[in-house]
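Now for our specimen.

. . .
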Amino acid sequence: MIVVMNKGAGGPDDPQARVLELFRAYGHEPEFVDPGGDICAVATQAARDAARIVVAAGGDGTVSAVAAALQGTEKILGVLPVGTLNHFAKDLRIPLDLESAVRTILEGEIAAVDVGEVNGRIFINNSSLGLYPRIVSRREAQQQRLARGKWTAFLWATIQALRRFPFLDLRIAFEGQEIFRRTAFLFVGNNEYEIAGFNLGSRACVNGGTLGLYLTHRTGRLGLFRLAFHALFGRVDQAKDFDVFCVTEARIETRHRGLLVALDGEVERIATPLHYRIKPGALRVLVPKEGAG
């Protein structure tokens, strides 16, 4: 197997020595590759290699880049969640401690899971337009120019984005319907997300064959805080300015030639219109055996 190891994920400590020790304890000697500054190129090369299993060791960005290269092939993705949030691993019930995660790669079973796609770009968790991509873009600029830490930069970027509060005028076509919305954000999930209560932000499954579309309409700053309150207390259905749709594909048009789009936390500008679709069972992932643990 090949391990694509993002040494910068999750903090200053380099987990490679520990990962190698764990694999060796089970009699395996994987090949490690460091993506450096071009993880997509490294992931693409790993997908072309003879190795049957390609392991992504890092956060959701690393896992997403490797998954994008492997989806639609017979290659198998292993996940070592050594990032900060590890949403994909959590939703697949992959253990977050390294020893159990390594054991899952060696002893787990293969699950076929869905991926989302927008204009040829793949995402494993979610994609979004509007407020969040602007926050991430400003955060990255602050980290580079002002040498601020990730979370400090994120806080200041959020304040700046809320101060200017961008709205998008969107025409959204799906399942024979067409709607027009003036919105601060559109969130597209690879399968449906929990939007209320203690499981807020998680998914019950990643193989349901659908996209979840979530968006506000004509909601200002106070409306967003009100929506967050409803979500925390399980009453999103009471929010009249919030829409939820379950679709297999959607076409999004706007007067802008391109939009900032967040894909699993990474931001890029993509030409419009945006065509989202679900790719059912396109990715093979090692997960814990049913009943294990």
About this structure: The chain is about 30% helix and 35% strand. The helical segments are 16-25, 39-48, 60-70, 87-91, 98-107, 131-146, 150-164, 221-232. The two ends are 24 Å apart (CA to CA). Residues 67 and 77 are 7 Å apart (CA to CA).
